[in-house]
Amino acid sequence: MQSRPTLEDVARHAGVSRALVSIVMRDAPGASEETRARVRRAADDIGYRPDPRARRLRQLRTKLLGVTFAAGQEFHAELIDGVYAAADDFGYEVVLSGVTPHHDERRAVRALVDDRCEAVVLIGPDLPTAELEALAATTPVVVVARKVRGVDAVRSDDTAGAAMAVDHLYGLGHRRITYLDGGRAPGAAERRRGYTRAMRAAGLHAEVRPGGLTEREGATAAAALLAADQPLPSAVFAFNDRCALGVLDVLVRARIAVPDQVSVMGFDDSPLASLAHIDLSTIRQEIPQLAHAAVSRLVSRLDNDDGDAQPTDIVVPPTLVARGTTAVPA
């Protein structure tokens, strides 16, 4: 079935910008009569018609953006702060709905829709792709920190970030680098892929062990390394900073010197990572950029007649932050 003509199609046919087409279709000031006539002729030529449903929605504005997040996840909390800042720039307010053991993700999303949020930011959702696509068909949605087919997404380049961590450790001289995996968490598959590819490219054996998202899971993984019937790796790369902190705690208690005996690397660059007594080497996710990109995408759909635009996957490069937990192996 042929797709419905969009503002981009009109702009291309008329030889003007998409923003100028939007001005003409909204009868807003900023375009000459000659330009208005040319744009309207182009719209008639390709069969473009404004969506009356979108027009009605714009006339019944709440200016509310909903955000779902996992309670207790520091990375999510930082993203929320970024969303607040970006939403304020665009003149929107933010409504939060946390995901907890007693308030699951479906209830969190439903609460935002019931509160008449015009659009929703889902941070690291676990909902199946089919449910996310169904939600996006009725409400503008941006998924943050996860790639989802058929839905707008904003995420860090987790594959490149993991490869960056391996390259950093390899450059220091480490040859046995163990990765503590994130299981089925958003971004885990990409980070695992980046680690294994970088290890293979360096001619090294990839050693992936169960890790997790929390300090407790990191501590469990570190304890398993200590109990294993083989020498400790010279470096441990954890799925995220919280997991890395659990590893550090166990190693310190076992009197294993970090980084002299074992280097430790995280992912996220959470506020705790930069504390002087932790000083964790990590991969920074550029939170202000992620948050701004997510809010900007939603505002484009709500305010700029982008409702029919194809979903986009916006990828933000991460940054290596080398601190005191990684060094040349002894």
Name its key features.
6-stranded parallel sheet; alpha/beta; 330 residues; Rossmann fold; 4-stranded parallel sheet
Question: Can you tell me about this structure?
Answer:
Keywords: DNA-binding, Transcription, Transcription regulation. This is LacI family DNA-binding transcriptional regulator. The chain is α/β, with parallel strands linked by helices and 330 residues long. It folds into three domains: 7-50, Orthogonal Bundle (434 Repressor (Amino-terminal Domain)), CATH 1.10.260; 58-155 and 288-315, Rossmann fold, CATH 3.40.50.2300; 158-285, Rossmann fold (3-Layer(aba) Sandwich), CATH 3.40.50.2300. The chain is 44% helix and 16% strand. It contains twelve helices and twelve strands. It has helices spanning 7-14, 18-25, 33-46, 52-59, 74-90, 105-114, 129-136, 158-172, 188-201, 215-227, 241-253, 287-303; strands at residues 64-70, 93-99, 119-123, 141-144, 152-156, 177-181, 207-210, 235-238, 263-265, 282-284, 313-316, 319-321. The strands form three sheets. A six-stranded parallel sheet has the order 2-1-3-4-5-11, sandwiched between helices. Strands 7-6-8-9 form a four-stranded parallel sheet. A two-stranded antiparallel ribbon has the order 10-12. α1 packs across α3, α8 runs parallel beside α9 (188-201) and α10 (215-227) crosses α11. It starts with 6 loop residues before the first helix and ends in a 9-residue tail after the last strand. The relative contact order is 0.13.
